[in-house]
Amino acid sequence: MRLQSPQFQALFTPGLRSVAELFEKKNYELRIAGGAVRDLLSGMTPQDIDFATTATPAEMKEMFTSAGVRLINNKGEKHGTITARLHEQNFEITTLRIDIVTDGRHAEVEFTTDWEKDAERRDLTVNSMFLGLDGMLYDFFNGYEDLKNKKIRFVGKASERIQEDYLRILRYFRFYGRIAEKPGDHEPSTLQAIKENAKGLAGISGERIWVELKKILLGNHVNHLVRLLYELDVAQYIGLPLNGSLEELDRVTKNVQNLCPKPMTVLTSLFKVKDDVTNLDLRLKISKEEKNLGLFLVKHRQELTKATGPEPLRPYQDFIMDSREANTNSKIWELLKYQGEEHLLKEMQQWTVPSFPVSGHDLRKMGVSSGKEIGTALQQLRDEWKKSGYHMDKEELLSCLKKL
């Protein structure tokens, strides 16, 4: 088939036209590869585009240099990737490769000009397609068929693909949550291969696992996929608690629908105690902000809840006003998502934290001189201000001070 969609046509910037001309002049083949092809076939505009070519890195360097094109960041060169910058745009172009040796984490590669051999070493059929710049689709493993049927399958034998890089187990779940229509539509042989190879994830770095896990948590079918992580013995190797609270996960995934939670908000539903957050951090090296959010939710999800009566938000507002920490606002928003309080969340997001209208300077003007007395008086006034729902102004508070 030949693709001619508006999304595809929009890719042809002055930069891409110039790149295409250079490759054509030298008779090197150049095609769009992997995820960008999948997105274009789904009618989406790809976020970033990878290109594949029959030219070797040395040939590309020679070609670009003699055309006066700037090359940037040569880190990818040993894997066959050259990044060229034309018309304020970066183009990441990789030579077709065959994996010679794989150890479950890294691969030693050899360059090839065989497009099918390169497709064969990719993880999933929907990620193994190429698109010529004339719109012609090159699809060796029925990826387009699988995409239309919303099926996620490994290229070739699942166990072989997984053993080349164990992170592909999580990539399988991530793309399932992104493409599959309903939960439970897996090939039994794929699930068996995942179960047999789950232990391989123990050797994968926490940072790489966390990148994939976060995407799983923000996709569809989250509770189904996390249950599978437990059923297939994956959970224990990626830092999840052994007896994660799956009922709470079911409840929270319903609560957070359409509320754009942070991945940590969803994940915390599995945790029963603070140690679960600490253990996750030890394995996955999550950010300080993510760890603090997890600890905050575990600590406050039960007792910090809306008030009955006319001011349901008061407990949350009081918490923010009493807090001495940064980011308390955003943590409270995540707590409201976790609790499924959609209306309160909207109100809370529109609430501006009021500033306390009285200062030590005001009290000195009224004749309170000792530092200790000023501290005590300010605290008493803050309590009065809080009781008023933060409505009392400076005059009311200072007249209140006279009574106190």
TrEMBL record:
<keyword id="KW-0808">Transferase</keyword>
<dbReference type="InterPro" id="IPR032828">
    <property type="entry name" value="PolyA_RNA-bd"/>
</dbReference>
<dbReference type="InterPro" id="IPR050264">
    <property type="entry name" value="Bact_CCA-adding_enz_type3_sf"/>
</dbReference>
<keyword id="KW-0694">RNA-binding</keyword>
<dbReference type="GO" id="GO:0046872">
    <property type="term" value="F:metal ion binding"/>
</dbReference>
<dbReference type="GO" id="GO:0016779">
    <property type="term" value="F:nucleotidyltransferase activity"/>
</dbReference>
<dbReference type="GO" id="GO:1990180">
    <property type="term" value="P:mitochondrial tRNA 3'-end processing"/>
</dbReference>
<feature type="domain" description="tRNA nucleotidyltransferase/poly(A) polymerase RNA and SrmB- binding">
    <location>
        <begin position="187"/>
        <end position="238"/>
    </location>
</feature>
<feature type="domain" description="Poly A polymerase head">
    <location>
        <begin position="30"/>
        <end position="153"/>
    </location>
</feature>
<protein>
    <submittedName>
        <fullName>TRNT1 nucleotidyltransferase</fullName>
    </submittedName>
</protein>
<keyword id="KW-0547">Nucleotide-binding</keyword>
<keyword id="KW-0479">Metal-binding</keyword>
<dbReference type="GO" id="GO:0000166">
    <property type="term" value="F:nucleotide binding"/>
</dbReference>
<dbReference type="Pfam" id="PF12627">
    <property type="entry name" value="PolyA_pol_RNAbd"/>
</dbReference>
<dbReference type="InterPro" id="IPR002646">
    <property type="entry name" value="PolA_pol_head_dom"/>
</dbReference>
<dbReference type="Pfam" id="PF01743">
    <property type="entry name" value="PolyA_pol"/>
</dbReference>
<comment type="similarity">
    <text>Belongs to the tRNA nucleotidyltransferase/poly(A) polymerase family.</text>
</comment>
<dbReference type="GO" id="GO:0000049">
    <property type="term" value="F:tRNA binding"/>
</dbReference>
<keyword id="KW-0460">Magnesium</keyword>
<keyword id="KW-0548">Nucleotidyltransferase</keyword>
<dbReference type="InterPro" id="IPR043519">
    <property type="entry name" value="NT_sf"/>
</dbReference>
<dbReference type="GO" id="GO:0005739">
    <property type="term" value="C:mitochondrion"/>
</dbReference>
<dbReference type="GO" id="GO:0001680">
    <property type="term" value="P:tRNA 3'-terminal CCA addition"/>
</dbReference>
<keyword id="KW-0819">tRNA processing</keyword>
